[in-house]
Structure formats: structure tokens, C-alpha cells
Design goal:
five-stranded mixed sheet; alpha+beta; 40% helix; elongated; nine-stranded mixed sheet
């Protein structure tokens, strides 16, 4: 029986082998399918092809130029931080949107969803060694697992400007002026963008008058901020957990519907600190020449619990896009991490919405051109060393030069290539011209072609720069 079972002609064994072969084939097919690469970036993220990078560089340069113009210094931090940096337990939406995980060292970490906590950590790490006031800016990449809409992704770059060590609204006025300066530099006006301003102190004074204890202010602000997106009924359970009666919240939202400082002043105490700060900010805005960009809106709360004073949001006046930028004062942030109280204010300005706005207004520049000045190629393989020599001369003179590395390419192909990448010139190194110490230069934009001495190429480059400046 045993021998028969092992025999070649055994029907059971043949069937088993056939079944195994089918199974192996299916497994191989599954492996082949599994090896097919999904070429899309992870949902909510982006690839940056050269044209996209030119746009990003243009935007970052504008941000950096404004930062430097206002005397700010650039800084950066790791994109990966301790998770506890962001879990402040105040009901903030951001704590539910973390890209967080436990690393191989069993540490709970997170990709940064915002930059301000990292800045606070860096300031604390110096233990008072930093000279105040501190004026820093950064352009970090931030990550939030949130619902995607127009101008909102799960990763974005964000221009952050912060001032530490100034407890007056002079800091907010400087920051708002810098924000407006950027808008003006990229071609936007106060007809395109407005900045809504309020103060958390307004909300604190209203809550105090309604009998809400101070320890519930931050959590209440976080909930009130959600009312712009959801109905009161949707957060009723959260309000009850805070011990807030519905009539208290209805009274609060009614007061926060005010759109003028005068109306708010009537609702608050005549000695209101919030109103005093707001009036001073308006005086400074007038001095900066930005008063036509700003207006009071008591409904602006901002969703982060650490804000303590002036808060603001820049928005599209047509109402087609979400908030462009936002920020405020956060004097007690260091205290939440066990540090000393330090006055601080700042804003965050994402890259996605502003690009959408510039496209919508049809004022975003084109980034199709590569920025390359000159393409250079050899008419024969033997002249390739001479091509390198000419390219070196042009590069030393400040030109961006693209050398055609394949010397088998024909002139017609090179000219088309130069047009496609937006190059200004094509330099041809041919045997007859080189024998006379010359090269041929075709100006693609003009359609002209001339011979130029190699010894005069530097002077030619200078003349091109002079024409551009004219």
C-alpha cells in the first residue's frame, strides 16, 4: 500500500501534484501583480517635478525676502518630534490628525503638524541663553491626516514668523505688516485679501461675565472655533462635558457676531483690556499703512488652545478659498511645557491656498522655462573637449549652461530642445569656426545666428546681462 501510494502512476499523487502546480502558478501571478509599482504619491502628498520646484522656489524666495527685510533669522527643526509635544489635551483638532507611531526604540513620535511647539522646545533647550526679543522665521513641511479639500492636503509647507520677548501689540503689528508686504510683493491687493482680527481676551472677558471658570477658557475657544464648520447641536455633547449650558454658548456666539470694535466695546466693560489692545493695534496698523487690509471680527477664535491674546486670519475676499494664513499671541505656551512665561506671537502661512489664490487671480507667473541661459553642443565627437572649455568660460561668467552630453545629437534636435526648455541661446562648436578661434551662437528668441571669438565670450555674457537689466 505504501509503495503503491508512492508510485508514479498513482492517481492521488498526480492530482496532488497538479493542484500544487496550479497553486504555484497563482502564487507567482500574485507576486507579479504585487511587484507592479503604484506611481501615484501617497494620498494627500505631492511630487515636485522641476516646474513645480521652480514655483516652490519662487514662493519660498518671496517668503525669505520678507523675513530678511523685517530683520528675522531663519531656523529649522526635525520633521519628527516627540508625540507629547502636540498632545495638550484641550480638544484640539490637530491632536486627532497626527501622523504618529511608536518607533523601533519604543518612543511615541509624530511628524510635525505645526512648527510652533518645535520652536518652543528649541527656545527652552537654550535655557535663557537666547537674547530677546527673538525674531525667527522658518518654512517647514507639516503633516496632518485630515479631510482634503481645495487648498488643503495632508502635507504642506508653511511660512512661520514668530516674535518672542515682546508683550505689547507692537509684535502683532510688525507681523501683520510683514504678511501684507508679502501679499503686495506677489501682486495682491486689499481688494483680494482681508485680515480678520480678534482677541482671545475678548472671549475671556465674555466668558467671565457669563460665569465660565478660567480653566475652561481654552477648551471653550477650541469648541467655539468649530462652530464655523458645524452646527451648535453637533458639539452639544462636548459642551455638556465642559459643564457649559446651551444658553451660555448661545449668548457667547451672539456677542461674537459683532463686527466692530465699537459694538464689542458696548458689550464689554468700559475698562476692557481687550478693547484697549485692539485700539492700539489699529493705531499701529495705520502707521504701517495696512489699515485697509484689516478689520475686526469677533467670530475669529483660531482652533489652537495655546492662543492667549490677539488672533487673526487672512482670507480670500471672494470667499472661494479657506483661510490663507493665521496666527496670534501665545504667551503661555512655554508654561505648558514646564518653562518660564515668555511673551510670544506669530503666524503660519501655508503654500497651497496662496498658490490657488494666485492662479484664480491670474497673477501666478509661468514656470515652464527652465531658467537655463545657454545650450552648447559639439558638431563632432572630437570637439567635445572644446565644448567643455567653452561651457566653463560661460559658467565662470555667471551663465547657466546645459551641455549636450550626447555628441551624436543633430543640430535640429538641439535647437528644438533649447526651445522646449526655454533656453535663450544655443552655442555650436564646429570644426571650421573653432579653427578660427570662434563659436556660433544662435539667439533662439530672435532667430539670429552670429560667430563670436572664444576670447570674447565673457564680454558677450556681460552684454546679455546689461540688456536684461534694461
Amino acid at each position: 500500500m505504501v509503495m503503491a501510494a508512492r508510485g508514479v502512476g498513482c492517481p492521488l499523487l498526480v492530482a496532488a501534484e497538479s493542484s500544487n502546480a496550479v497553486s504555484d502558478n497563482k502564487s507567482n501571478l500574485m507576486k507579479q501583480k504585487a511587484l507592479v509599482l503604484d506611481t501615484n504619491p501617497v494620498k494627500g502628498t505631492r511630487d515636485f517635478y522641476p516646474e513645480d520646484m521652480r514655483l516652490r522656489t519662487w514662493l519660498f524666495n518671496h517668503w525669505r525676502n520678507v523675513g530678511q527685510l523685517y530683520g528675522f533669522s531663519e531656523y529649522d527643526s526635525p520633521v519628527l518630534e516627540s508625540e507629547t509635544l502636540y498632545t495638550r489635551k484641550a480638544g484640539e483638532e490637530v491632536t486627532q490628525q497626527l501622523y504618529n507611531f511608536v518607533d523601533k526604540g519604543q518612543r511615541s513620535v509624530s511628524l510635525r503638524p505645526e512648527m510652533t511647539p518645535s520652536l518652543a522646545r528649541m527656545v527652552m533647550a537654550k535655557k535663557g541663553a537666547l537674547a530677546l526679543p527673538l525674531k525667527w522665521f522658518s518654512i517647514p513641511q507639516c503633516w496632518r491626516y485630515e479631510r482634503m479639500t481645495r487648498g488643503r492636503r495632508r502635507e504642506h509647507f508653511q511660512w512661520n514668523m514668530d516674535i518672542w520677548g515682546v508683550d505689547g501689540v507692537e509684535a502683532e503689528a510688525e507681523l501683520l505688516s510683514a504678511m501684507v508686504k508679502f501679499f503686495e510683493n506677489v501682486g495682491l491687493t486689499s481688494a483680494d485679501v482681508g485680515i480678520k482680527i480678534n482677541s482671545r481676551l475678548v472671549i475671556a472677558e465674555v466668558l467671565t461675565s457669563l460665569g465660565v471658570p478660567e480653566e475652561k477658557f481654552a477648551a471653550t475657544c477650541v469648541l467655539v472655533d468649530k462652530l464655523e464648520k458645524v452646527a451648535l447641536e453637533d458639539i452639544q455633547e462636548d459642551l455638556e462635558k465642559l459643564g457649559l449650558a446651551r444658553d451660555v454658548v448661545e449668548r457667547l456666539t451672539f456677542i461674537l457676531a459683532n463686527k466692530s470694535i465699537e459694538a464689542m466695546e458696548a458689550a464689554l466693560s468700559p475698562t476692557s483690556e481687550a478693547i484697549s489692545q485692539l485700539r492700539k493695534l489699529w493705531v499701529l496698523a495705520e502707521a504701517y499703512g495696512i489699515s485697509d487690509w484689516i478689520f475686526f471680527d469677533a467670530s475669529v477664535v483660531r482652533g489652537l488652545a495655546y492662543y492667549t491674546g490677539i488672533v487673526y486670519e487672512a482670507f480670500d475676499r471672494k470667499g472661494e478659498l479657506r483661510a490663507i494664513a493665521g496666527g496670534g499671541r501665545y504667551d503661555k505656551l512655554l508654561e505648558t511645557f514646564g518653562g518660564e512665561p515668555t511673551p510670544a506671537a506669530g503666524f503660519g502661512f501655508g503654500d497651497a491656498v496662496i498658490v490657488e489664490l494666485l492662479k484664480e487671480r491670474n497673477i501666478l507667473p509661468s514656470f515652464e522655462s527652465s531658467g537655463i541661459d545657454t545650450v552648447i553642443f559639439a558638431m563632432s565627437d572630437s570637439l567635445y573637449p572644446q565644448v567643455i572649455q567653452v561651457a566653463s568660460i560661460l559658467r565662470k561668467a555667471g551663465q547657466s549652461v546645459d551641455v549636450i552630453l550626447d555628441s551624436n545629437k543633430k543640430a535640429k534636435w538641439v535647437f528644438k530642445y533649447g526651445d522646449r526648455i526655454g533656453a535663450q541661446n544655443v552655442v555650436i562648436v564646429g570644426p571650421d569656426e573653432w579653427a578660427k578661434g570662434e563659436v556660433s551662437i544662435k539667439r533662439l528668441s530672435e532667430g539670429t545666428q552670429v560667430s563670436t571669438k572664444v576670447s570674447e565670450l565673457e564680454a558677450w555674457t556681460v552684454s546679455l546681462k546689461a540688456k536684461r537689466s534694461d
